[in-house]
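Troubleshooting: if your tokenizer reports a length mismatch, compare your output against this known-good record of 265 residues.
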Amino acid sequence: MPAKSPKKLPISEIKSTLLNVAQTSQYLLSLSIPQNVTDALGMGQIITERIELLCSNANLPGSSLATHESTNDYHGVTERMAYRRIYDETFNTSFYVDRRYNVIKLFEGWINYISGVDSRKFADPYANARYQYPGGVNGYKKDIHLTKFERDNNVVDNAKMLEYCFQKAFPISITAMPVSYDQPDLLKCSVNFSFMRYNIKELEEGTIGVEHYMNSGIVIENQYSAAEVAEMNAPSKASSNEPRILRGQGNQNVLTNPNRRGGRG
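Known-good structure output:
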């Protein structure tokens, strides 16, 4: 495609492009808390939803490509070949702490549930606990969703949202929260989540939406037929379980070749 030449644009087109941009302050966090954690803390769905609204900031995830450098194919040229996708290791969030400290209690309780430190079992605060992975590795890992939308999402025709799904996430650390007698400020709790990978799903306002997973490897709907998808997912012939016949000199079967010697004569 050749380079474009400068041209005049109407004011209406410039306004519709430059003034129709996304803002950072419109988002919604959806937490999935292990049931045992909410039961132990006595937190219902209403408290969990309030904690979600207290999320002051979150980061949309990023990823990169691992590359291999090739420097000997062309004179004076260094090429990079992509061979692997690398996802961010953590998902960072911050929450305003409510006056009942439910935000701190929730994430401290979640980490206590993972590590096995339960105040009901260990009356001694200096007691040691062994990691028990309650319910298996999936017992404390839950999917977290972050929906990005715009302020006029309900009035614009065919408005769309982006839903980020962080698969198998769990809190990996809680940042220290300083307090002092200086000028008072809002207390924030920063929580870092570890996750396996993320998906991006495009939603249309008022509908459940078509699952267009951009990063998950799931085939986008209507791009391939059902027969083509089944053929791509079928095991390759090279990986069949049929025994491989060893060939020797003259392309003869090594196992049935009468001239083959089992050892040195």
